[in-house]
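Lab notebook: predicted structure, single chain.

Context: the supervisor wants predicted structures on file for every construct in the current expression panel, including those that have not yet been purified. This is the next one on the list. No modifications to the sequence; it matches the entry in the shared construct table.
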Amino acid sequence: MPEPAARTGLRRFAALAAFGRLPFVMKLLVGTQLAFNVGFYMVLPYLAVHLTEDLALAGGTVGLVLGLRTFSQQGLFVVGGALADRWGAKPVVLAGCALRVVGFVLLGISGSLAGVLVGALLTGFAAALFSPAVESSLAREAGELEGAGGVDRADVFAMFAVSGQVGSVVGPLVGTALLLVDFRLACLVAAGAFVLILLAHATWLPRRPAPHAGEPILAGWAEVLANRRFLAFAAGYSAYLLCYNQLYLALPAELDRVGAPAALGWLFVVASVMVIVGQLPVTRWARRTGGARGASHGRGTRALLLGFGLMAAGFGVVALAIAVAPPALWPAVAFVVLLTAGQMLAVPIAQDLVPRLAGERRLGAYFGVLSSAGGLAVLVGSAGVGALLDPAVAPPVVAWVVLAAVPLLGATVIGVQARRAAD
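Prediction complete. Output recorded below exactly as produced.
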């Protein structure tokens, strides 16, 4: 019986083999996510410590800097997406890389609040430029390949997710080593990494004709905002980003409650390993249920809805444990596993669904609006969740019950939209 074992061994390398079959441009775009995350995670996880300990900024000021950085990124994706449709992906990606180089240099050399704030805003807006440009380019390239009988677009976005997770694991390790010298060195090395990324894209990313060159930028937004099916989907899907953000807000609070704050690091490792090892097989299983192609016509949304259900279950497990069990670490572990599994099911299917809902048009604007909707949900929702996590405001179980309802609400919106499309 050696043949089945050999086949099992080959399946373990399915993601690598599938990546090897991609055209060079798509390999560049998928690998871009790894490079972006390595450079980003060299610096940003340690920024708060630098601001507090090295620059002696107050906690409220540190929170303001970090909040503005997040808003300049997530909230402005809609701008980057519209620019990519208007000018083409390549110049927008190059501009984003250049801004991130400048931003990291400023973060490293600035000793004043003004300099740090400008650097943080530039690093955020840089991602608002290059991320929707890269995602829309990947969707377009993968859609053409899929139409010619090549690899499925949902699989390509699964590879994209794996690539990003590898970068999010490698980046902090490199940053930790560089911080043995100082924060400035980490920033300058990260800036150097983005110089290399810029040169790679300047050399190898083809300059495709802009799909909507010469048209007013606002025309793209008007078309997106008139697409009610997509807006309903974006509203429901924004629940995912709010849920995912609880790895940085609700999870640390729960670990502090049970007396295990040091477990946060290895729980992030667990989530990353799950994505790296299992993302492509999970996406292929989800696609076989009719997730991506069927969902574009209002059918077969089971995988997407199952993903949201798993996220809700993760929050529900913690809520139940708080209510009936003594403080323990296992509910937090279950939360991370279920949240990550739900993410693995839902996200690549959803990213493949966006261009289908868009009619393969104005993909930059559509991906930008999708991300900005999630950013708005995080901005509003996290403020409320943060208040509920304060023991002086409500018992701990309340926040987790509310959070369990968020993905259920998102799934309901997506399910209703799919049902109407099928009628």
